[in-house]
User: What shape does this take?
Amino acid sequence: DSGVTQTPKHLITATGQRVTLRCSPRSGDLSVYWYQQSLDQGLQFLIQYYNGEERAKGNILERFSAQQFPDLHSELNLSSLELGDSALYFCASSVEGGKANEQFFGPGTRLTVL
Amino acid sequence: SQQGEEDPQALSIQEGENATMNCSYKTSINNLQWYRQNSGRGLVHLILIRSNEREKHSGRLRVTLDTSKKSSSLLITASRAADTASYFCATDGPGGFKTIFGAGTRLFVKA
Assistant: This one.
């Protein structure tokens, strides 16, 4: 158990819908990262937050947005969902928000868009 | 395109044998990390090697880094069936932020 929690575990929804994925980092970690893992794209970095502020952005679509709240939990919002958005979404946390360092991954949310 | 590319894509060995996986990357890095992922589960950090280090050990794991060739290798000695998993290398992106993962090597260790 990494100490990072993600909810829900599974999510099944239809195209065009909007969903919110939630992540709670390890106690004491200030940085949260979001990743998308699909079969044909591997693990793609989406976005990183550090202590409530956006720190780095990766291949995140405009339909997706994220935020980190004062209690350091984070949410990833996916809207106008398409079939291709079906994937495993991972959240990870680390102590620091600076240069890349050891990250602790949550169990992931499996999103299926029908 | 991804920063890190693992080779081979898949590797099948017998228990007790050594497994070697390679990672190549494109731009200069501050550090390189290796992670392991059991099927459908979260990644687990194995080891981090900094750009000024050439070799690092952790238990049965040995990681090397050759910054002149922009490559790293992960060696698992005396493999066990429980080592069956996907292994990813990850590098920091331009400026040191972001973490860019390769496509991974799937390791199968047969008992």
Observations:
- The longest strand of chain A covers residues 42-50.
